[in-house]
Amino acid sequence: MLNLQAMAQKKGKKRIQVERSPEQQLRYDNIDYLPIIKSVQFYQAKEEQSLPLITLGSGDQLFLSFDDLRADNRTYYYTIEHCTSDWQSSNLSTIEYIDGLTEDRLYDSKSSVNTLQTYTHYELRFPNEGSMVPKLPGNYLLKIYEDADKSRLIVTRRFYVLNQEVTVGIKTLPSFNVVKRKEHQKLNIEVNLGTIHLNNPYQDIRVLVKQNRRDDVQEVLSKPMFVKENQLVYNNNATLDFDGGNEFRNLDLRSFRLLSGQISASSKDSIRRMNVIPDHDLSDESYSFSYDEDGKFFLRNSDFENSDIEGDYAAVSFTLNTSSPPAANEKVYIAGLFNNFKTDTDNEMKYDPEQKQWIGNLFLKQGLYHYTYISKIAGKEQLNRYDGHHFETGNTYDIFVYYRKPATRWDELIGFGTVNTSSKGPIRD
Fold it and tell me: 281, 208, 210: which is closest to 246 by C-alpha?
């Protein structure tokens, strides 16, 4: 666990010796390899917190930023790797999927200003003409590492390069299962092939559907229900039947001077500490509409102008009240896109049997956060155990269509579609 007291450095204090980051085992996932790497943002540069997807040859760019709480100056490099549709290495030579440099340096870094928690803020925009540009559509992994040593990984992030050769039709409707009709959301999908001619439509195309960009709420379809002329139809009643869940809970940390109504207590010593008003178990409550951002987060600072380097950090305590004791071998986690819905020791909560509460702590930068609670019993996730299940919930579904062409060794992303099951508006400013 991160020692917040030790990491909070006083203004003006300088690190005498810079210790290199340790070697890491590469994982083809969204990973922050060190606990001192915080507030990683990665999205399509035209829209904050959007899906990191660019169109091949379009000139679109991706934006990456993160804070290093060691607050010194380090030399970071980056590269990209083409991956299969299930996020394994495509085992291609870099010359097959990169046009230009196969490795480049992160040049944009700034030190925090007037913050209790000091840090160095890093940013990257790519692809850049003349530097590193993807040549093939498909899945990619961005790797950030120290001193041009690929074993000293800092951050990895998944992104997508699209060559839109097919169109995706999406219909949302109630579940065909009567028991689940008030809780689930059913999707039917049609892939219109256009000029693509498939040798075997039951093997060549793979469709992946994600709810709210969660790896733990997704489904892969390898075979269509029907094959029509230039169209694949995925409308099996037993597939793409998702638990609707509930709207995400939200936390406003934009100001440390004028606290939001969600904060019950605040203190300041070497760092800021805040307690969030306790959340409640919503599993037995009826659906209540609220605006949310489907698990996204937005770094904002109402106290100063520059959120990037003037945004401070706080140790934030969360509490979840439950009416019944935990199940045997149950673990509960605080999760959202700010931590990629991970379930590890950094966001695990502890149960207080006297107060009948789950209590957990996160170290968060000023901003707006949309989060949920993930429960696991004996290692198996209990979806929306403390949130409830409602077909009315607004969720975002992303559909990816992959194609492995004959005589090739890689999967191409040839189609993409997205749908939101509500018309809720943004709350991010």
Answer: 281
Query: What SS3 state is found at 178?
Result: helix
Dist. CA 100–CA 129, nearest whole Å: 8
CATH for 167-244+392-420 is 2.60.40.10
Cis peptide bond upstream of 278, omega within 30: no
Closest CA to 389 of 285, 280, 304: 285
**Looking at the domain 249-382, which fold is it?**
Immunoglobulin-like (2.60.40)
- Helices of type H across 18-160: 94-97
Let me know how long the chain is: 429
Please give the chain's pLDDT, 429 residues, in tens: 445 444 544 444 454 567 999 999 999 999 999 999 999 999 999 999 999 999 999 999 999 999 999 999 999 999 999 999 999 999 999 999 999 999 999 999 999 999 999 999 999 999 987 789 999 999 999 999 999 999 999 999 999 999 999 999 999 999 999 999 999 999 999 999 999 999 899 999 999 999 999 999 999 999 999 999 899 999 999 999 999 999 999 999 999 999 999 999 999 999 999 999 999 999 999 999 988 999 999 999 999 999 999 999 999 999 999 988 999 999 999 999 999 999 999 999 999 999 999 999 999 999 999 999 999 999 999 999 999 999 999 999 999 999 999 889 899 999 999 999 985 544 455
The closest alpha carbon to 241, from 424, 374, 416, 397, belongs to 397
Q: Same topology for domains 167-244+392-420 and 249-382, yes or no?
A: yes
Question: pTM for the full model?
Answer: 0.93
CATH class of 4-11+18-162: mainly beta
Q: Are 208 and 402 contacting, i.e. CB atoms less than 8 angstroms apart?
A: yes
Q: How many CB atoms lie within 10 A of CB 34?
A: 19
Q: Using an 8 Å Cβ cutoff, are 312 and 365 in contact?
A: yes
Distance of alpha carbon 104 from alpha carbon 4, whole angstroms: 32
- The residue ranges of every structural domain in the chain are 4-11+18-162, 167-244+392-420, 249-382
Torsion sign, CA atoms 249, 255, 258, 264: positive
